[in-house]
Amino acid sequence: MEKIDDFGANKTGTQTDEGRESFDSLIKGLIPLTLVAAFAGLFVGLIGGSFRWMLEYSGTLFSGMLTAWRDHSPAQWMPGWLLAMLIGATCVALARSLIRMAPEASGSGVQHVEAVMRHEASPARFRVLPIKYIGGILAMAPGMALGREGPTIQMAGVIGHVCGQISKLARADQFMLYTAVAGAGLSVAFNAPLAGAAFVFEEVSRRMTLRRMVVTLAAIATGMSVFRSFYGNEVEFHTHGVFTQPSQILWTYALLGVVLGGFGVLYNKCIVSGMNVFANAPRIAPEIKAGIIGALVGGLAWVRPDWVGGGEAQIQSLLNGDLTIQAILFLLLVRWALGVVCYSAGAPGGLFAPLLLVGALVGVLCATGLNHAQITTQPVDPVAFIVVGMSAFFTAVVRAPFTGILLVIEMTGLVSLTIPLLIACVAAVVVATLLRGEPIYDSLLDRMRLTQPSSPGLRTSPPPKG
User: What transmembrane ranges does the database entry give (predicted)?
Assistant: First the structure.
């Protein structure tokens, strides 16, 4: 029997029929597919970048109004705190009402992108793009604990699929564009191109082929070029004085990963339980329930504006050392509950940014505890534990360690923490797996199958070939 190696060639070096067929499938339509992906990336950079800018502007506008109203009430018949609650309720209720036009636009949207990749759902309709854009701004402007990356990823997927349809690509290539161009959305959301590529291969498709890699990188390259030409290339978080960690304390990062692996499993269960409680609450319209959550967030923004929002500002405060231990502990409790409650409303918004804050908070608390116990040969660096904590908690929740490591490195620029990041993320994955915790997007996809069986986004026709 002729022996064949992994590349489809026999011992004489000639290509076998199997290898030739694989090569033919790689190059078939590759150039137009790559050009369309690059073209789609341009729109991802424009739309994703403008979405990020609008979120920052609307959030600043809302917090500015609250600051002004604390000094001078806008109306004698209505106190400022009540107006803040009314605005929060109205915005979140409107955001939730948009979901009626496209149920697949609910929440993060990443689970729907994964369902498309698994041929369990059709690509989201074009109307999802404006719903995610407008609904995301309405939901996050008043301070909901949601992330911009979820809507940006799904909007990017829609852009890729529409470009594939207009270009009249093969149906299988249209599906590939939907999932591959989604990576450009994550890249634009966090200015993290490598993490966007890793997310496509590790989490969305869960396999890597040369064809998919070329398409994904083409979309990310053009999307990031447009984004950075308008919005610059600054890292998300600024840190100072973090150096390569001594080998004597590397075991502490394994301990941090163990802790966050357990917390990640618990957080996932809380997210799904929160959504179930919201759905099974007294039979009132989901818009009213979402409005109640929005009112609570608006009231919290009036009392403690430093507690609300996606979480980026709080992470920077942690890195700057601006918070006391008591404040950090209380903020952890608040943000854990707030993240669960806000996501349960079903308004457009992601999970990444809020869970990064939870990981950072646990990280700094662990560093403080280790230093207080004095069980290491030298003090551990709280800033390093904050950075590693973000990545390890992301890994425990999403179960995508490569993405988590690259995401945090690109957001902070701290390549010096690569080894601690690897150690903590490995420990987090092992613990979360041993505890039989399901990755969050698998849980959300299972729930989507049960709660949206007749959704237009769920497939009834056979999957495409290829």
Answer: 30-55, 75-95, 126-145, 175-201, 213-231, 251-272, 284-303, 323-343, 350-370, 382-402, 414-435
Q: What is the pLDDT of residue 165?
A: 92
Tokens found for residue 238: 């600024």
How far apart, in whole angstroms, are the C-alpha atoms of residue 218 and residue 38? Answer: 5
Q: Where are the chain's structural domains?
A: 27-231, 247-451
Q: Lowest mean pLDDT of 78-82, 191-195, 200-204, 347-351, name the range.
A: 78-82
Percent of the chain at pLDDT exceeding 90:
70
Q: What gap in Å lies between CA 205 and CA 66, rounded to an integer?
A: 43
Please, which residues have CB within 8 angstroms of residue 341's CB and are 6 or more apart in sequence?
145, 274, 293, 296
Structure tokens at 232: 């610059």
Domain 27-231: top CATH class: mainly alpha
Q: Are 404 and 439 in contact (CB under 8 A)?
A: no
| Whether the Cβ atoms of residue 135 and residue 348 lie closer than 8 Å to each other | yes
The Cα 367–Cα 380 span in angstroms is 6
In words, the CATH class of domain 247-451 is mainly alpha
27-231 and 247-451 in the same fold: yes
Q: If you search the block for the tokens 């073209």, which residue do you land on?
A: 39
Model confidence at 102: pLDDT above 50: yes
